[in-house]
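Example S7 (structure tokens).
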């Protein structure tokens, strides 16, 4: 791979800003394509001297004189080469966001770039209510909704009413699918709403193909990296699941209080909601639970780091700086998690492929088992 040589007097190009974001990390934000790049404390100190006038030797000499650290010109050169490869220095041309490694298995397609603008009026309506008391009550109602729904599922099952004709089941499914799509839109909207409440509007609403086979909706909340405190980031991650708890509670009430087609549709919806809950609780997929755990513990991109560590170790590649300093036990945990997430991805792809093949076979055979 061809790398870009570092400039003799480095300087960040226009459109690259240095900020302090989550967990007090220094981030370089490329405003041209919206990407964030993590840099360490020493690298941040070096970048402060990237003024387009100082050479690597002068930068190293200044840092040594300040007693910051024992820095050699080679250290400065290594940093400038890395930043130049990422097109962050003068002379670089901003490109599109690049997804590397296993992220290539999850292509994303934005369908509403102005989603934050759509949500803005809702954010302003909710802002006065976004206080500890109302939020606690909102969460407790969601928990009660989950409890009621799961109790109903355990006691009565998730299958539609027994004795229903096939045409009734098909009709119920056709009605339930668009309702569930609206529920998913609300789920993603609440991620965006809470982002807006914390001053970092969501960039857009889109659809991703998880492992290239499973469509999932998502809200681009990349700018949540700017939020330093863990609490708001946890709230953003769990906002969609809180919404789902309300919806499951309402669905449970409908199932318990109605008959006929209405009950059949609601029962079908409960099965969809159970699948969505399982997906959001899955620790091996890019789920809301993983995002919440990362935010609560201060972990950063747990799945991405684990998979990068595993792939780099197996291919005998040099580890990135943020992984090379991990303890042996932590590396083992990361690699184990990375292996499990890869195995889960393989299972999903095989499962979907097998189901498509099986369904096609049944159609060709005229529905014969």
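Recovered sequence:
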């Amino acid at each position: 791979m061809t790398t870009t040589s570092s400039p003799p007097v480095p300087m960040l190009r226009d459109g690259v800003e240095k900020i302090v974001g989550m967990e007090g990390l220094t981030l370089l934000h490329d405003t041209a394509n919206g990407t964030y790049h993590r840099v360490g404390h020493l690298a941040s100190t070096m970048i402060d001297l990237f003024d387009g006038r100082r050479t690597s030797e002068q930068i190293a000499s200044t840092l040594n004189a300040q007693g910051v650290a024992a820095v050699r010109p080679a250290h400065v050169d290594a940093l400038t080469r890395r930043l130049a490869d990422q097109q962050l220095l003068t002379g670089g041309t901003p490109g599109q966001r690049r997804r590397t490694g296993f992220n290539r298995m999850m292509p994303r397609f934005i369908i509403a770039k102005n989603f934050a603008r759509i949500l803005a009026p809702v954010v302003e309506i909710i802002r006065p209510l976004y206080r500890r008391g109302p939020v606690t009550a909102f969460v407790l109602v969601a928990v009660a909704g989950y409890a009621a729904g799961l109790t109903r599922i355990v006691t009565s099952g998730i299958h539609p009413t027994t004795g229903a004709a096939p045409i009734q089941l098909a009709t119920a499914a056709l009605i339930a699918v668009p309702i569930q799509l609206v529920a998913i839109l609300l789920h993603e909207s609440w991620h965006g709403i809470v982002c807006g409440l914390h001053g970092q509007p969501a960039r857009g609403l889109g659809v991703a193909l998880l492992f290239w086979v499973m469509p999932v909706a998502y809200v681009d909340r990349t700018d949540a990296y700017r939020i330093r405190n863990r609490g708001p980031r946890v709230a953003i991650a769990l906002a969609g699941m809180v919404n789902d708890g309300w919806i499951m509670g309402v669905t449970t009430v409908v199932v318990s209080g109605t008959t006929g087609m209405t009950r059949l549709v609601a029962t079908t919806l409960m099965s969809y909601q159970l699948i969505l809950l399982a997906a959001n609780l899955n620790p091996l997929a890019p789920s809301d639970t993983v995002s919440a755990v990362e935010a609560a513990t201060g972990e950063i991109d747990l799945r991405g780091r684990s998979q990068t560590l595993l792939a780099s170790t197996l291919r005998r590649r040099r580890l990135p700086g943020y992984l090379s300093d991990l303890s042996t036990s932590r590396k083992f945990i990361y690699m184990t998690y990375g292996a499990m997430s890869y195995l889960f991805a393989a299972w999903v792809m095989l499962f979907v492929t097998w189901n498509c093949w099986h369904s096609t076979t049944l159609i060709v055979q005229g529905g014969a088992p």
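Notes on this example. The mean pLDDT is 85.
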